[in-house]
Amino acid sequence: MSDAIDWPRLVRLALINTVLWWVLSGGGWGFGVVAVALATALGLAMPAAEPVRYSLLGALRFAEYFLRQSILGGIDVAYRAFAPSLPLVLSWQHYPLRLRGAPARTLFINAISLLPGTLSAELRGDIVLVHGLTPESLQELATLETRVGGLFGQTLEENPS
Known about the structure:
With 161 residues, the chain is mainly alpha-helical. The protein has helices at 7-25, 32-45, 56-82, 102-114, 141-151, and strands spanning 91-96, 118-124, 127-132. A three-stranded antiparallel sheet has the order 1-3-2. The chain is globular and about 60 Å long.
């Protein structure tokens, strides 16, 4: 391990931790200075993550898609909750991941669970087990994965064969 201080990383971590403390605590700085210093020191002690490439256009497309799907899915789930005549056909699907890299895969797996009607239940290797309230709720997985891929600068087919 090198004794040289990575000043850009130190400053970046200190700024991120300061902003996080300010947002989460409402600006109470009595203990905040110590907390920020400790969090920054711990961050420096951990190995640096691989650089992640992001696409601004991909981020905008993902945000639009995720917001639209969240609203539509939420309306659908609420409607099903208040209209018992609508069937729930609980479904499971083993979905093979096409995304590369832990950050992209982590966002995809978490986004599955944030969309109404779906839940990522298990990850084994390159396969994620997904639960859906209806078979239709699982049809959007490839589109979601493509949008997450776009956010990370990865080009994926919309409908894999």
